[in-house]
Amino acid sequence: MSTEIPTAVICGLGTCLPPRVLSNEDVRRRGVLDTTDEWIRSRTGIARRRQADNGTSTGDLAVAAGRAAEASARAHADLVLVATTTPDRRCPATAPEVAHRLGLGTIPAFDLAAVCSGFLYGITVATALLRTGVCARPLVIGAEKYSSIVDPLDRDTAVIFGDGAGAVLLRPGVRSEPGAIAGVDWGADGAGSDLIAITAGGSRQSDTSRRLCREDRYFRMQGREVYGHAVRRMTASSLAVLGQVGWQPGTVEAFIGHQANQRILDSVADRVGIAPRHRYGNIRDVGNTAAASIPLAMADTATHNRVRPGSRTLLTAFGGGLTWGAIALRWPSAVPGARDPEPRTTDTTPHPTHRRKQQWKPSTTTS
Ligand code: UT7
Fold it and tell me: Which residues pair with 168 in a beta bridge?
């Protein structure tokens, strides 16, 4: 019997990107923004992003990514966690309906709100639940429809954010195998809660107020200040997790940071000591997809076979809250799946009551 420390192992990866591509010029024209393609590319690294259409929700993207992750792992989830800033509704959480639409019956399902750090927070929570035996196959989904909260007239945010979803399925395993989570570091500082925020719509300021102004209704970010926090926090968290697992920065073969801004990512990687050839991401093509950004970048990297399974990998994220985190893991061997957004249908076909003990079968239904 193995004496290795048990942990969670990524055994499935899935994504969903809405088909509509918005170029920098499209964004500029839509909001009549005082910006240029050249400015956006050189200051953020973003050339285009995806935008979901009006009929597509965060839950639709999450279902498609979750289904693709299950197919990639050839296994069904026994817990669903959706990390998102853009839930389908303020109440209830999006995850229970996602689990239902995945045909997973009555398994536990909940949302996690940590803005752009949501996916890393989700992996941290799922790993802890798995290690204590609460679940065996948690499905962690980062899904966002930022186009539903970003003000097209605000050039600070409109040029950055995009829509999409990414998901991983975890199973129990040991720390030496591909996909294994080796260590986590996370933190939060509510003193900076106003730096990234939607002011109205919560209990503090209802969005039924007649006086609601544009400034309060939409997502706002104090970009320059956030930039400094992001670099400092992701650097410190990365070094903390590497110290925890005893990996020298020079031995990390794959680095993926939250796809917020290419300049932030380069600063963090330089400070941590990760060589440029070990840095991966897809910010140029999808922009900042908040909680979806790390699984989308991982799947893109895995699809192109850029990293050898088992390689030492460092993930780090920073977001509203303020929240941040870093995870050390072995690069997974899972082959990523991708699906198109799945429309919510009114199909009343009874869904399986509980698939926890069922064998994996490819699923073809869309509700
Ligand atoms: O995902 C969660 C965490 N989010 C982040 O980590 C994002 C953090 N922030 C950023 O990525 C960057 O701060 C932005 C992309 C939002 C802004 O880039 P920046 O390099 O920090 O610009 P800045 O605010 O320092 O402004 C530099 C100049 C200013 O002009 P002056 O004062 O030098 O004449 C701005 O008015 O760039 C101007 N500017 C723009 N120009 C064209 C700011 N935004 C734009 C724009 N287009 N979209």
Answer: 13, 140
Instruction: Choose among 20, 64, 71, 142: nearest CA to 339.
Output: 64
* DSSP conformation class of 290: G
- Does residue 254 lie in a domain region? yes
Neighbours of 345 (CB within 10 A): 11
pLDDT tens, residue by residue, 40-67 = 999 999 999 999 999 999 999 999 999 9
> Among 49, 261, 266, which residue has the most ligand 1 atoms within 8 Å of its CB, making it the best to mutate?
261
CATH code where residue 221 lies = 3.40.47.10
Ligand 1, atom 26: nearest CA belongs to which residue? Answer: 224
pTM here? 0.94
Residue nearest to atom 48 of ligand 1 (CA): 155
Q: Rounded to the nearest whole angstrom, what is the distance from the C-alpha of residue 230 to the centroid of ligand 1?
A: 14
Of 36, 38, 43, the residue with max ligand 1 atoms within 8 A of its CB, to mutate for a pocket test, comes to 43
Could you read off the pLDDT of 108-141 as tens digits, one per residue? 999 999 999 999 999 999 999 999 999 999 999 9
Count of structural domains, the chain? 1
**Contact assessment for residue 331 and residue 176, using Cβ atoms and an 8 Å cutoff:** no
